[in-house]
């Protein structure tokens, strides 16, 4: 299989996220055959950090997917995760820390890694 100099769609997506440009990241996400839950979370965090108007809808969409895809999630942890996402708008560091704690307790370690990568220094 030949891979172009730009790499796979997923590596292009990761580079687009790293640029901090929501438009580039969204375009790269559209090229992915499937957006993994951790990739979707990275995009949600990027939208928030950039003050992008798509943040709230993306956060709700991510939450719905998390509820469906994380086997250990309960009603209480789902509600707490949604509250943590809402907290991002008031106190980003606190919201990320709470969400990381919830996801860690659920064994969703790839999602915790994403939060760690995108957290302000000293948050986690």
Largest sheet: none
What fraction of the residues are assigned to beta strands by DSSP?
Answer: under 5%
Radius of gyration: 14 Å
Helix and strand run: HHHHHHH
Name the poorly predicted regions.
none
What characteristic shape results from the CA principal axes?
Answer: globular
Number of helices: 7
How many runs of DSSP E, i.e. beta strands? 0
How much helix is in the residues? Answer: over 70%
**Roughly how many Å apart are the termini?**
39 Å
Q: Indicate the mean pLDDT.
A: 93
The SS-based structural class is mainly alpha
Provide a descriptive summary of the structure in words:
By secondary structure, the protein is mainly α. The chain has a domain at 37-118. Helices cover 70% and strands 0% of the residues. It contains seven helices and no strands. It has helices at 9-19, 22-31, 37-50, 55-69, 75-87, 92-105, 109-118. The termini are far apart. The model has no long low-confidence stretch (mean pLDDT 93).
Give keywords.
globular; mainly alpha; 124 residues
Brief sketch in words of this structure:
This protein has 124 residues and is mainly alpha-helical.
Protein topology:
Elements: H1 9-19, H2 22-31, H3 37-50, H4 55-69, H5 75-87, H6 92-105, H7 109-118
């Amino acid at each position: 299989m030949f891979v172009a100099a730009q790499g796979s769609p997923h590596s292009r997506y990761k580079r687009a996220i790293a640029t901090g440009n929501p438009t580039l990241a969204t375009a790269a996400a559209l090229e992915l055959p499937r957006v993994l839950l951790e990739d979707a979370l990275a995009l949600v965090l990027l939208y928030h950090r950039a003050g992008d108007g798509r943040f709230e809808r993306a956060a709700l969409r991510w939450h719905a997917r998390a509820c469906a895809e994380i086997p250990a999630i309960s009603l209480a942890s789902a509600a707490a995760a949604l509250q943590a996402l809402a907290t991002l708008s008031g106190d980003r560091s606190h919201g990320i820390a709470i969400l990381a704690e919830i996801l860690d307790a659920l064994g969703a370690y790839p999602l915790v890694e994403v939060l760690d990568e995108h957290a302000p220094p000293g948050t986690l």
